[in-house]
Amino acid sequence: MTKLLVTLFRLVSAQIRKYRIYYLLICILLLPIYFLSPIKIYTVLLLIFLFWFLSIANYRVAHYISFTPVLLFISLCPIFLLFGNSVAAEKSSILAYLLLISGLVYSLTIQLFYTNEIIEYDELITEFMRSTKALVPIKAEYNKLQRIISKILKKLLNTNPQTALDYILNLMKIILLLSVTVFVLSFSANIISGFIKYALVIQRAEQKRNTRLSLNPNIDKVEPYLVYSGNKVIIYGKRFGWKGGENVLLTKGNETIITELWTDTKIIFTVPLGWKPGNIPLVIRKQIHWERKNTYAESKKVSIKLLKSTGKINTDDDAYFEQLKTLSPETLKMNGYE
Amino acid sequence: MFLDRLKKNKSTAIYIAVLFFMSLFITLINLGFKKDFIGEDSGLIYFFHNGLSKYAYYTWDNMWAPGKISITTLFGFIWTNILLCLQRIGLSYFFIQRILFFSFLFVSSTGMFYLFKTLIPLHGKVKNRESLYFGAFCSSLLYLLNHYVGYMIGFPIIPFHITYMILPWLLLYFIKNLYIKSSFTDTLIFSLLVLLFIGGNPASTLLSAIMLAGYFICFFRDFIKSTAQKYKFIIISASLVLLLSLFLTLPIIMMGSNPYGGDTSLLGNYVQSFEFNSMHTSLLNLFILGGTVGWPNSTFYTLYTANPVYIFLGYILTLIIFTTLISKKDMKLKLFFLIIIVISFFFAKGLHEPLSGINAFLYDKIALLRIYRAVYNKFMFLSAFSYSILIGISGFYVHRIFSQRTGKGKHIVLFLPIIIVLYGLPFFLGGIIPNLFLTELPKEYKNLTSQISDNSDYKILSIPPTPNGGGPLLNWKNGNKYIGPQMESFVLGKPVLDSYFFIKEGLNGLGPSDSWTTKKFIKSFPKVLEYSNIFNIKYVFLHKDYLTSYKFNKSGDALKIGSKNDYKSYTRILEDKYGYAKVISTEFYELYKVPNLNYLDHFYIPEKIIYSKDQKKTLYSFRQKEKINSYAIISKNKYIDKKTSYSPASLSINKINQTKYILKIKNAKSKHLIVFSESYDVNWKLYILNKDSTDNSFFSIFRQSVDESRHILANGYANAWIIDTDNICNNITKCTKNKNGNYDFTTVVEFAPQKYFHLGLQIGLMAFILTSSYLFYLKLVKKT
Question: For residue B270, what is the enclosing H or E element?
């Protein structure tokens, strides 16, 4: 079994090893995407980290090679800062940090498991040079493209101008062509960048909205739903805040309810005698500091139903006793049903 | 002998002298010769040594009325005693501040110097000692001059600074004893260092302990190979630390609970605090060891973030540090410190990318991590430590290469210390400390104690409430300000109740935001005065020097003062409406005396009992303007109710200290209550003394207290005991019967952890004397 697993492992690692040049190339290709994208693409960042680690691990480079890009990206930080591009500087520092981790993990692996260091970076250079041969077919395609462009130009322009008018016409055609091209390009660039900006605005607004909403108190459960005056009601949830440390309120319309227990996840209060029977809306209000201002974060409205304590027994009273079967032991105990 | 050693280690002496003069210069240029360095967390606690000794030697803090358990202050016991010693030898706090400031810089940097000097030869051969000393100098320089130190010296030196100061020394004696050569002296030094180290910030102490454990695990092979008497060291140092720290551990163990008292309000606010502390901790800043919350307010922020030369210098230093990784030598050691950097960066960056989600998840799920929510402050000292070691290694390599050169070429090595000093230039220019903390305490405050001759047992109400109960910001003219915890308790030497207490209690619908702008509070002030009667308040301290809203500039000065200081509104209520007598009036404050009629005693036996399910609610609806000592509000209980025969007795009190009172009860019969107007805590115990027994016997620690079920909450916050005279006086050894058939007896009210603190302290002292005597014997007697 062990033998089988070892063989399998070797086979898999050999397969992974086979494509190591591609890991390196992908890694290099991802770099401009990471730096040029207007938003922080952390997936790309993690891919760079992963492919860089696969590259150094499969080439089994000397440990210092694994740290070289760290130095490169750290040195890019002040350069970006001086050019006023703090976003790129931050991206560079993040990349440096991740590559530092990959270098650290790699060096630790070498330190712990390989007593004789295997250095194959010569092989890396050779392989890289070899891979440039792959560019030959691309060069042929480029020549083809060049020929097509010259054909188009010949059709558009007078390639054999004789008179001054021919020259003027050619010049006008070039200006017109350039203007159209610039207009089309800038127009499309504007549309694309507009889309990107719009996407960014939407994303930021969404993020902001989510962040703001994440501060709201969240009520998960209120029990009992049907109550009489004097019953104890427990509100379960999260982010209620802490009484004493923060300005927190439990309200019924504009009225503040006096609570007996207030924790970040639980509130207990007694239904006072003075409330009128019917639906009682409950809202938790917590003071937060948002965008440099003190404001209130509110939970969604929940309600309990206050039943009449006097008069004939009706269906509501039956429902009250029916709900006791579903209440948590804590609520039952609090209300004297043990 | 000392001179011989100095001659031998000429380079060491020169480098240490440089560090000494640098530390001295930085101290003098930043602190100057005129102003005090006060405020922040410590406030004025070190200024008035009477308050300091009360704070250090007692497990109950009655200075923050109505009192709180203060086991955690015992952590800083050694530190406080060092300060007390300095005060006892006659040094004024003005000098002590400067000594502490200088010590922080000098002790930490020399520690790093000696650590480096010991650490490197342990992990590889050192052919050139000069290169080693140079490397050590570079590492100590960076440990002295970096952004983290800039943040640390920005506020008065307190136990929080111990970690940074002692960590290099601790690691030095750790490796010395475990990996090189152990001696009794070194073992004792290590144990004392651990003891001092415990006094630092618990979160940082824990991290440092993890780092030491990490070092031990990573270099376990070296430990096995080492010829030092390591096991002897482990046993002796562990026993010594255990014995010496009994004053701290014994009360905690005997209490059997969290010494922090489960302050959940702190945990409730941790998310906002975590976000706030992550504000500037992007990796871009962390790579240059910057990123503290108040960084943009510092004088030199623009220099470090906008000046091209300084931007480059910062990252050049980082580059030099990471360039050491290129060399294969000492790889294991370098990787160890790299791991520390990577981990501390990960936690210190807080909510910054990458992997911010994981960070938030960890902080959310692991409750312990919440004590690290001030991410920069709690993690970056490890990075500064590791950076210093790595830059030392760079210096060591560079010196080795260039020292072999002849001519001017060999001076090229100086570029490294020059870059460090150049980058740390603001330290030498002054202005690192925010002006808020450099201030002059007005003489009106200094002389206040001498103006009050009342030595009875009472509390003082301080108004207006401090913002969120966190202490005031006071304006003392001529640019002198105070920001820190409430200071009156230290100035007056009496327990002070911050009027924020009533906001916290939600009186009249007041909320924390009302503590910033006092308008709403003033409306509720008459109610506050009525209710404060029940808190043993005898005086009202009115600040005239407080600010209500403020904005800071880059030097940390309050720039904009918002609403008008409205102290006159308080004066009108106090004098005109309630007729409080003005005792003292200065330009900064006024002191009023509560009319005698309304003053509640610290201990009293109520004549009438009010039963209530909601004591606080009853308390706030209770408007008794007559003799307030007549009443106590309690909940129903099995021992005493409306039907029980209740008979008050007379009481005389002898205060031994803030944790112990002897009460003589006279003419007692049937049942009555004893109310103690101090925050309720189960650790307050009441003992009935035998007629002929003295309270000072050693066996008093085993004394049986009154049944805990008779210890109840009264007045919504205070302690009360139900005393059943008939039951107690069944035992004739405890009571004396009077002619009228009533009884006299003596009780002791004591805060139990204090006994264990004393016991632990005695054992610790004994252990210390024994070990010191043995050391003396080894060093002098045996040698001769």
Answer: helix B270-277
Q: What are the chain B neighbours of A287 within 8 Å (beta carbons)?
A: 511-513
Q: How many residues would you count in chain A?
A: 338
As a whole number, mean pLDDT of residues B551-569 equals 55
B328: contact with A, CB 8 A cutoff: yes
Place of tokens 């250095």: A119
Cα distances from B174 to residues A45, B106, B112, B313, in angstroms, run 40, 20, 14, 34
Q: Which residues of B touch A86 (CB under 8 A)?
A: 284
3-class secondary-structure state, position A324 = coil
Tell whether the model's pLDDT for residue B564 goes beyond 70.
Answer: no
B341 neighbourhood in chain A, CB within 8 Å = 100
According to the model, what pLDDT value does residue A245 have?
53
Distance in angstroms (rounded) separating the CA atoms of residues B582 and B574: 9
3-state secondary structure of B381: helix
Q: What is the pLDDT of residue B408?
A: 65
Quick: pLDDT tens for A91-143.
899 999 999 999 898 888 877 766 544 444 455 556 555 655 555 666 666 77
Q: CA-to-CA distance for B204 and B160, rounded, in angstroms? A: 8
Alpha helices in B424-551 (DSSP H): 425-429, 443-446, 448-451, 488-492, 500-504, 519-532
Is the CB of residue B64 less than 8 Å away from at least one CB of chain A? no
Residues paired with A259 in a beta bridge: A269
Order of strands, edge to edge, in the sheet holding A218-223? A218-223, A232-238, A266-270, A259-262
Distance from the B506 Cα atom to the nearest Cα atom in chain A, whole angstroms: 8
Interface of B with A in 283-302 (CB under 8 A): 283-284, 287
- B309 close to A (CB below 8 A): no
Flag whether pLDDT at A257 surpasses 80. Answer: yes
Take residue B271 and report the two structure tokens written for it.
């998310």
* CA-CA-CA-CA dihedral for B449, B452, B455, B458, to nearest 10: -90
- Whether A268 and chain B come into contact, CB under 8 Å, resolves to no
Q: How far apart are CA A69 and CA B722, in angstroms?
A: 75
B207 or A17, greater pLDDT: B207
Residues of chain A in contact with residue B335, where contact means CB-CB under 8 angstroms, are: 104, 107-108, 111
Amino acid identity, residue B364? Answer: D
Mean local confidence (pLDDT), B201-230: 86
B315 vs A243, more confident = B315
Beta pairing, strands A302-306 & A226-227: parallel
Range picked from A189-198, B385-394, B592-601, B736-745 for highest mean pLDDT = B385-394
In total, chain B counts a number of residues equal to 784
Q: Specify burial of residue B381 (Cβ count, 10 A radius: 0-12, 13-18, 19+).
A: buried
* Sequential DSSP letters for B121-183: HHHS--S-HHHHHHHHHHHHHHHHSSHHHHHHTTS---GGGHHHHHHHHHHHHHHIIIII---
Specify the pLDDT at position B21: 94
Mutate to test the interface with B, among A97, A121, A218 (most CBs of B within 10 A): A97
The interface predicted TM-score of the complex, written ipTM, equals 0.81
Dist CA B775 CA B240 (whole Å)? 14
Contact B322 A74 (CB under 8 A): yes
Q: Which of B284, B286, B468, B635 to mutate to test the interface with A (most CBs of A within 10 A)?
A: B284
pLDDT digits (tens, 9 = 90+) for B167-189: 999 999 999 888 888 888 889 89
